[in-house]
Structures
1.
Amino acid sequence: MGPNGAGKSTLIKVLLGLTPATSGSSNIMGFDLREEGHKARRMIGFMPEFDCLPKSETGIQFVTKMGRLSGLPKEVAYQRSHEVFNFLKMGDERYRKIMQYSGGMKQKVKLAQAIVHDPKVLFLDEPTSGLDPYARTEMLQTIKEIATVAGNDIVLSTHILGDVEDICKHVMMINRGRLVLNGPITDLLAQSGYVVDVRITEDPAPLQKLLEDKGLEVTPTEEKLQVRMESTDTIDSIVETVAGAGFSLRSLIPHQQSLDEIYISNIKAQQEIESQFSRMGNQVSAKKEKRRASR
Amino acid sequence: MGKKGASVMSPHVDGFGQRYRPLDHPLQSRREILRGFLTSSIWETVKNPLIILLLLFNSFFILIAVMMTYFGITEMTWVQPDVPVKYVERIMTDSISMYFIVGYWIFILYGAYIGPKLLTQPMEDRSVTLYTCRPITKLDYLMVRMGTFCTFLAFLTFLPVIIIFGVGIGLADIPFSDKLSLMWILPAGLGVAVLVMITVAFVSMAVSSLTNKMAWAVGGVFMVFFMPTVVGGVLYGMTGNEHFLAMSLWFNVEVVMNHLFSIQIMTHDIHWSLSLGILLGVSAFCLWITAVKVTTTEVGT
């Protein structure tokens, strides 16, 4: 997962061998993607985020063709395509031209072509994008079933954290092409611990400074401050600070940190580090300029 | 497969809502995949209504060329029992060259439709991403697309040559040794067919690979074939320099064809080897452009 422009889709394209990596190497199931990309792709299915279906073909024609291209004989591809459409609860619409499909149906055809050859690794790029809540739930259940029944590995790329919490076991977070976080979702939530949401009637910026001066880890989010709970004393410390500075406390809610909050705090932390490096870089350049000028 | 507008649940929809089932069939080899891809690609091209229409139009010219051979030879046999072998040779070569002279413009129509349909359209609707994330390489993809076009054009260029040659040889009432002396017409005719095929296919595919807009590709193919002919003709008219005529691909095909068939109707001094060099050079350049574009273009953006 990662924000828009983080490099999620690019990473998938590199792993599919569709885009060359600028540096480093990549392999899937032991196949080096630069040399043996086509071999690796026998075991890979890919559902892209963007609209990429030929409008003049019917759903069944297209999925059968993709089945054949994935290595299924003609009759098997045709039969398997019907099986997949049945599984996706797509009835006689499969015989209609794709140009007549709704957004939800197009998502199903994209998923159908990705699973028609029962790939061992399935890349799904924003599979719930543009779906209504019902279709979204249906899509997530479908993905879950593919993983449980066939035991296939599914890589879900998304910035919708609800989807991740619903169906994923392992999370990798990237931002601006860099890995920010990596681990099982249960471990992340366990490690994340508890936080306290502090709301005051006044501007929270001065309170943030006071709390940080006391050694507390504070993250401003929208109109509240989120303080990491080190111990039960944290709450006492917050109350004392708020009362001491004369702020009016509106609410003080302790809770376990959600994936959204882990996500935001990690992205912010990375941005801060990058901006610090950038500032340091600017200072170094400025010093060099000064030295040159003085010479 | 086509069950357009089916309103009642079809038999295939019996297992509607069934659970996911893992695949219990082994996957084919890459070679078998490519063979299947080529077959389906050719079939998709041929069953297109516009192509069927063009094929019918094309068949009309094949028929005329065959009839020219048939009537030319049978009429001569009726008038003069001992037909001179030179006359049979002339009828056969004239029929073949007539077919290519008229047919070339139809081949360009094929080029302007099939080339963009095979290469540009998948880029326009971005389905090329779904093709290239299969167990084939981008070069395989290009080879299949190129193979589709060449197979199609080969059918329309090789077959008429073989038919005209067969009709001519079969009907001519000449001794067997004379028939043997006419055998050179077949490889010469097939040589012209290859030249027409690669020129039309490679140039059309190269133009089609340069854009992801169908309209641009179609227009571009016409421009590449027609503009040099027009510009070359105008420049020749203005300067009197015959070499400007060689800007036209079709002019060069005609020069090589006339040389192969020993037809002396041209009034210029362009050497056939120059024309052949231009055609092969342009075709090789176009093939290179297509290969580079298809293999390096990033898909799915």
2.
Amino acid sequence: MEQLGQRKIDGLWLTVVGIAVLFFLILPTLIVIPMSFSGASFLEFPPTSFSLRWYEAYFTSPEWMSATKTSLIAAVLTTAFATPLGSLCAYGLHCSTPRIRSSAQILVIMPIVVPVILIAVGVFSLYAKLGLNYTLTGIVIAHTALALPFVIVTVMSGLQNYDFDQELAARSLGASRAYALWTVTVPQVKFSIQTGAFLAFITSLDEVVISMLVSGGDNATITRRMFNSLRDQLDPTIAAISTCLIVVSVGMLIGVQLIGRSKNSDK
Amino acid sequence: MTTAAQSLPIDISNLCKAYGSVKALDDVSLNIAAGEFLTLLGPSGSGKTTLLMALAGFVRPDSGSIQFGTQEMIATPPHKRGLGMVFQSYALFPFMTVAENVAYPLKVRGVSKSDQKARAERALDTVQLGGYGDRRITQLSGGQRQRVALARAMVFEPQIILMDEPLSALDKKLREHMQIELKALHQKLDATVVYVTHDQREALTMSDRIAVVNHGRIEQVETPERLYRQPHSFFVADFIGESISLPVEVANDKAQLGGRLLKSDLPIAVGRGGHRLVVRPELLEVTPGAVPETANDLSGHVHDIIYQGDSVLVIVQHDSAGQINVRVPANRAGQTGLPSKGERIGLALHPEDTIIVPEHVA
Amino acid sequence: MSVVELQNAATLKSEERRERLTFLGLSLPAVLAILIVVFLPIFWLSSLSFYNAAGEPSLENYARIFESALYRRTFVVTFQISIAVTVICVLLGYPLCYWLTRLPNKTAAILMVFVLVPFWTSVLVRTYAWLVLLQRNGIINSSLMSVGIIEEPLQLAHNLTGSIIGMVHIMLPFLVLPLYATMRSIDTDLVRAAVGLGSSPRGAFWRVFFPMSLPGLFAGIVLVFILSLGFYVTPALLGGGRVQMLAQRIESTITVYSNWGAASALGVVLLLLALAMIWLMNRVFGLDKLFMR
């Protein structure tokens, strides 16, 4: 009986801590949203008046819009490059010997392991020699390299959960490797590929440190502008921009969850 | 109208495949006749699946030769070998309908859409799944999926069909039913079938010939009856059918059990190691009186009698050689005169049933 | 072997080589991209660290960073903060994961959204939120004052406290996700068996469940620690210039002092620390765990 009481108290404590941590995680994330609708000209929470002025400030500012355009284009291009390159890489590694695979795995997660500041500084000086600083090309190349590990890991785990016998069956029935890959394997791992694409997009859009050094001038990313702005003063326009970014992030997240759900309903 | 393809013979010569120090295929040679149903039988890890995969082109041997008819195939990629294959897991495409699955090999070969539909439907009829074309794979039972896999492997009329333990996932009754169906299907098709299984009963039921595989080598290739009656090694004798084995001494082609000479009509195969007498429980005759001079005397005392439904297993303690099992039908004829526990039982092993094998193949 | 078989053996070998090369070829573009963007600059940067200001090869830079009180303090501060962040993440994250594990799967999946949304939200957005929350007239100070706990607003932003709070918020999902995945895979039958054999529920937890959750916990700890060591954005914004971790020190050494030698030496040390952690985790658990998501 005493043990049961003890269990209940333990359970209660656990629930309290669990809920508290969840709130700790979500509240600061979402608090920007109501703030962005505040009418005051300084940062306040809770907001005392409702206004769309900060959204107006964001959408009418040529600098912010240019930065947004740069970020979106960079993200789309990064996704367009990283997704096929990463998926093919994952497939190639999946079909290679275990020895090659483990060495490649180490190499492939380097962009995540190596501290971003080092990559940023290194790339910055390399680009200085090649004249790629402040160019869209430079940004996209760097972001693609950063996004590749996410695509590769996601697609590789998708391939591992896939019954490879099906590709063998297709080949035994007369399909060449490439034809079998395209008609049988890809339709089944497309969920992983799509998830990888979402990850690539958001990685590029949210990337701060490299963009801080490598983007600029006409090709400044939104993250670079935000960072510089935050260092100087707390402009409430940032709240509006942040809300827009949150919407995009959550949209990506919902997209991934929907993919996962439709994949399970197919089974 | 497509002309029926003539089935092809398969000639395997000196096939070797090693994974590190393990020899998965150890100098394997085998000739399979056109239109034959040949089973590769062996325990897991024996190399039977490796051999099948080498025929399919998914395992690349280190050396040797594989010929389909007169064409050398060993380096040909799987999709150019023109054979049909049924996998153990069926490997059906879950995102396609049944008809789309079956029509896939036709689509690959550029057959027109209307032709695809007609031939797929005909293939499904052959496996008794006519009308199932629009169903999704997930809606089918295990037995139905197995038949779709079969239809898909046959629809383009291949000259050779490979099957990798296709019935192992089915329950006993369905499996036995499918074994007979597959055999009937083979009579209708004009194709050479190579079938892999570890179930000896399945092999005995379906095959024209059985190749027993052990440690990457083929120990014996025979018709089911000859394999059962005249195994060439202890492994084959032990793997197929029930048996009890007793060590014997062999000198000058004559075997002795416990000092007494054994009379046997069957030749003793050449091999290595010692020799054993293989006693199949159903071949021993229970003699009420003395054992006739023409037969071998294996009498002893009844240790236990076990009822097993269709037959009765009598465990006998032989005077000197150890435990011997005798299987007796559970009908009146079999049960009359059966001694009870502890009593003496006369057992006769006739010379045509006296199997003596070497421990190992040469 | 007959002539045919000899020919076959040769053909087979060349076919195998060709196939292997094709697969490597598929991976090549991605690998090249990573090599060019990550490895090349790092090597170049590291090589810089071995030259002094006069352009002669020397270990001056390394000597300087280990002798200088400023750089030494940077190392100490970085380690202190990283350890503090890791410990707090464990203290907050482990109970959260354990609680989620005990809930029915559907509920837990829905609640995981509370972890995933911050994870997918930009670091800048979250850091900005903390800047607002922690500032002198921010909501935390004002609510504490209105309840009467404090009289003067606390200095929560632009200092060490703010940095740590912000970093914990960013790092927590990195601990929670691998840890939760590991916990989910623990067979609860084992814990029930322990209780059935006479253990108290708490004892069963410590003796059965906890040890089995360690791989996920260690993966999360290593990840959080490495990321904290090299973290830039949040300490830069929430530290108010008073907190200088390694990443910021490297950046300011270049942009403010143009001292590439010292900066690259610091970078090399940081890189070695990160690689050492990865090597350690590979040794103990094997990198495959990361890929088994």
